[in-house]
Automatic annotation (TrEMBL):
Protein name per the record: Glycoside hydrolase family 1 protein
Pfam families noted in UniProt: Glyco_hydro_1
Similarity annotation: Belongs to the glycosyl hydrolase 1 family.
Top-level lineage group: Bacteria
Keywords, sorted A to Z: Glycosidase, Hydrolase
GO biological process, one term: carbohydrate catabolic process
GO molecular function: beta-glucosidase activity
Gene3D superfamilies the record matches: Glycosidases (3.20.20.80)
Annotated GO CC locations: cytosol
Keyword Hydrolase: yes
Amino acid sequence: MGQAFPENFLWGGAVAANQIEGAYLEDGKQLNVTDVVVGILNEPDLKWNPKRQKWEPALKADKVYLSHEAIDFYHRFNEDLALMEGMGFQAFRTSISWARIFPNGDETEPNEAGLRYYDELFAQMRRRGMEPVITLSHYEMPLHLLTEYGGWLNPKMIDFWMKYVDVVFRRYHNAVNYWMTFNEVNNLFRIPFVAGGVLDIHPAHPEHVNQDLTERQLYQAAHHLFVANAKTVQLGHQIDPQAKIGCMLSLSSLATYPYTCDPQDILGVMEHQHKQMLFLDVMVRGEYPGYVQRSWRENGSRPDMTQDELELIRSFPVDYIAFSYYRSTVYHAGAEIRTDTGGSAGLDNPYLKQTSPAPWRWPVDPQGLRYVCNFLTDHYHKPLFIVENGIGLDEQPDETGAIHDDFRVEYIREHLIQLREAIADGCDVMGYLYWGPIDIVSAGTGEMRKRYGFVHVDRQNDGSGTLKRTRKDSYEWFRKVIATQGEDLSDK
């Protein structure tokens, strides 16, 4: 037993439309960016048409795109939300699939069938006592906007985006109090197609998608996204002054530790953190920091921007910082440091007690979450919302049909202990939304084998399975945590 979390703390879970809904071409929806990839770290299945000088979808008949059906949440959301209600969820994060509302992205009128689906989904959440926490773009940009316009490289995207946002805000402002703009948009520089919505539509070498993107192009896309983010905050508060509109960033990489006290290691960590802080500095503080302006000068990568755009960004920062945290890493000058959907991976940390089981073996660092919360509080003085924290495990029911996921319970328990410490440190934390409360298609690997849920879904990597839902041991444990407001974090 221990000190409880704040009374208004929101407990729940988080998913994304592209990983859970399925029905990928149903009720008027057209292809989005994640419909042509199997795992967002892989190249999309596009082909260059030299006659038309255009990229075109090239889905492969012998490839399993699990996200096309996912776990069929589109047709089963009542059943799944009942399971979330059974744990006592007070909030549930999902996203609106932009391609359900504007299938190609550049239509003049929205798709009413898509709007009705989210009418029903959000109403059902509220009937079951859950606040909808809604991401406006979670790797679900209409593919047509990339192949036709180049995505966020093109300033026309801002108008397409604002038309979509205007429709959604006006339709759902009575149902949704918590919004986020772009999911993990700071991944733009390493996953430009999916995370950044960027495609070079005049490639010099079309053998590989986005092979020719320059640093300046990526900064230009980022600037257009920053302008769209500010306009979204401005419009959202005009339509609903009580709405809370946040950014959502992948911030595990802030927990990057120097390997030694060598100044090269210390400065290397600082520069690595700057890659994440750029998006915070612009979306939260409303200004481009000096370190990126130095990079622009030295590398000739300054994007085009106007004073009006800079004033807009300055005037409309986000209300809160939503973020994902999964693991920490260690930086050593000269050593490779790579990134994936869980954050950065450098040298092994000999001081951490354990990693997750094979095959992924992520380092488990609950204190890193406390560190990130304090880092954000010290630098940005905004409320924080943990909207992704979880562990993917390779697990199947035993001979009795049960799933004993003790490692998941321990992982969450240790992170919640450290989150409680961060709150005691003075961090203003709005809530904890576990990723993902039901097994879904993994974003990074595009498979079902990597299971995060409190609820098992019978679907396999080859696409087989009944889609039957089964509660794991962690389901009852997390229900106890919520029922005691986090006071009882014992592992039984």
